[in-house]
Structure formats: C-alpha cells, structure tokens
Design goal:
373 residues; mainly alpha; four-stranded parallel sheet; two-stranded antiparallel ribbon; globular
C-alpha cells in the first residue's frame, strides 16, 4: 500500500491517500481474495451495479462503449466499489487530474446524475465519470482478437506524436524489428490486441505517475524471469534508448513497468521468449478425446512449447499415458529420462487434473528458467 501512496489511518484503520489508487487497490484485492467465486458486497449492490453497467452499455447514437451481454465480475465490481466509496464520502478530486476522455454520453449522464448522487456537485460528477472512463481504459484485454472496446482504445489513445502512442507503437516496432522477418511473429497484424494493451499500459502509468495496484503485487512474481533472458533484455534496451521529449515520464518508468510489460508481451512473442519456454513432449494415443483435450489445454499455456519426441533433443517435460519405462526408452535412454520431469497422464482426467498439470508445469518452468539465468 505504501508503494502506491496509500496508508492506513491509525485512528480509523481506513485507507488514506489518492482516491483513484485506493479504489484500484480495493478492486485488485477483492478480485484475488475471492478467486473468482462469491461477491464481497450486498445483493442490492450487485443488482445496482449490474443495472448501471447495462445502462452504460446500451446502444445509442455515438455510444462510447460496446454492448456486453454478460459482464465479468471486474466490470460490475468497478461500479460497486465506486458507489461504495461515494456513499462513504470518498470522492475523486480534481487534483487527481484524471483526463476527460469522452464528453458525457446520455447513458453516462443517467448513471452519474444528480438524482442518483444528490450530494455531488457537477464538477464532482464529472470527476466520477472520468474515473469510470479511466477504468474502462485501464484494464488489459485477454482476448485473442480486437473487439469494439479495444478499437475504441486505439481510436482514443493512438494519437500520433503523443507520449502514449510514441511509447506503445515504438515498443511494438522495436519488438517486430527483433523478430525473424520470415516468422509469423514479425507480422504486425498478429499483435493488434497487444498494441491496444500497450496503449492501455502507457496511458495508466502516465496518468497515475508510474504506480498503481496490480495483481502482480499480490502474486509474488518471479522477478528474475521478467528481468533476464532475451525478451526481458529487449524490453530493457527499448527503455535505454527512450527520449523523455517523446514519451514523457514513461522514459524513467522501467523499474515500475517491466514486469507487467513482460507478462503482457511474452504470450505474443514466443520465439523472442524462447529461452523462457518449457519444452514439452507428449506421448499419448492420438485421435482420442483425451489427446484432443490435452493438446488444446497445452496450446493455451503461452509458456509451453510442444515438441515432438526426438532422441537427439531432450525436452524439459514428458507427458505420457504410457507408464512403462520400456516404451519411453524407445525415445530416450534411462539415463536421459532421469534428467526430465515425466508426468503420467490419466486416460480419463478430471478437471482438477488440468489445474494440477498447469501448476506442475509452471513450477518446472521456474526451475528451468532459473538454471538458464
């Protein structure tokens, strides 16, 4: 909390500091503490937040946001926390200088209206509208293709000759230049969601002066992984050549940004991050539902590189349904198998088996990366 400019008031035990930072910290804490299950506020607060979200996303002429049929918990919790803090008299102040990203839409004017918040002046309501717009811009997308919301990010933030765009587009160009020109990674169209996310990240760090609560703060991230290796080195080199005249305060934010940047960039550039990937050989009966589900699951883990069984190349992990060493020795000698993590996979795996597999693969990867670094 202290690193975000927030502390506890010794007389009330309430958080004290910039209101934007407090709200983002509360949201981050609750999202992690409830692990996707349950709701930390009342049923009434949920119903109100859901109605507000639906209203904000209703189609209208010049609509700012795109209709979302089923909002995720974060979408609704942003509004619930905002309402809770306003009810407690904790408001976003003009001094926090959140930018006005859009003029007030008809939908936003209905949600952030004097009838809903009679104690708030028009300037205070504008600050709250600006805060909500900031949150919609702030959180990165995990989608694989651009949606209307991502396109809105680019339309609003990808303005030429601004610090945000110079940083985000400059980093993308820097990474593309480091790729093998013949590889799929070298094609800009493969990274459209990442480009939107880089604009989001630059926007947030510039607006909040280099610090805000993130899930990484609570998850005890492996700093070594984000600081060493080819991709982390490229990120560092990019910062080393930045000019403050072009990107403003972002030029000096490497220490604050590099872990999040690495986490967001790594899935898009597996070849640039090849030294941090876990090489997994799968030896199972192909053409079954089990093998289909296993391969689909592994392909969804960005840190896994599936390699074919090859006697001349030792993988980091072998996943197999063949539990006799004689079968595996057709590919690898006993001495070499002793250096590899062998995971025996079930013919009829349960949902918990997939979670345990991911947990095991991640732990093995950290060991492998640590040896390389």
């Amino acid at each position: 909390m202290a690193s975000k400019g927030v502390h506890l008031d010794a007389s009330t035990w309430a958080p004290d500091g910039p209101e934007t930072q407090i709200r983002i910290l509360i949201l981050t804490f609750y999202l992690l503490a409830y692990r996707g299950v349950g709701w930390p506020f009342s049923e009434e607060a949920f119903d109100t937040a859901r109605r507000d979200f639906d209203l904000l996303n209703q189609p209208q002429q010049g609509a700012v946001y795109n209709a979302t049929a089923v909002p995720n918990k974060q979408d609704v919790m942003v509004l619930a926390i905002q309402a809770m803090r306003i009810a407690g008299g904790h408001l976003i102040r003009p001094a926090e200088q959140l930018p006005t990203l859009f003029s007030a839409s008809d939908n936003a004017a209905k949600v952030f209206a004097p009838s809903r918040f009679p104690a708030l002046s028009e300037p205070a309501l504008e600050c709250e509208r600006n805060y909500y717009d900031f949150c919609r811009m702030h959180y990165v997308s995990m989608r694989e293709t651009l949606n209307g919301q991502d396109q809105l990010i680019l339309d609003r933030l990808a303005t030429p000759d601004t610090p945000i765009h110079n940083f985000a587009q400059g980093l993308m160009d820097f990474l593309l230049a480091a790729c093998d020109p013949q590889s799929a990674e070298a094609k800009p169209e493969k990274h459209t969601v990442l480009l939107a996310n880089l604009h989001r990240i630059a926007f947030s760090y510039l607006t909040l002066h280099g610090t805000f609560a993130m899930r990484l703060d609570f998850l005890n991230p492996q700093v070594q992984e984000a600081a060493n290796g080819r991709l982390p080195t490229l990120i560092r080199q990019y910062f080393d050549q930045l000019e403050p005249a072009a990107v403003g305060e972002l030029a000096g934010d490497y220490d604050a940004m590099y872990q999040q940047l690495y986490a967001v960039i790594a899935p898009d550039f597996p070849e640039l991050n090849n030294d941090h990937q876990l090489k997994v050989a799968v030896i199972v009966d192909e053409g079954t539902f089990m093998s289909r589900d296993l391969f689909t699951f592994l392909k969804g883990l960005h840190f896994v590189k599936i390699v074919p069984p090859d006697a001349s190349k030792l993988p980091d992990v072998i996943i197999t349904t063949l539990n006799t060493s004689g079968v595996l020795s057709r590919y690898y000698t006993e001495a070499r198998l002793a250096k590899v993590r062998v995971i025996n996979w079930q013919l009829a795996p349960a949902q918990s088996d997939f979670f345990n597999l991911m947990d095991t693969l991640y732990a093995v990867r950290l060991q492998v990366v640590a040896k390389k670094d």
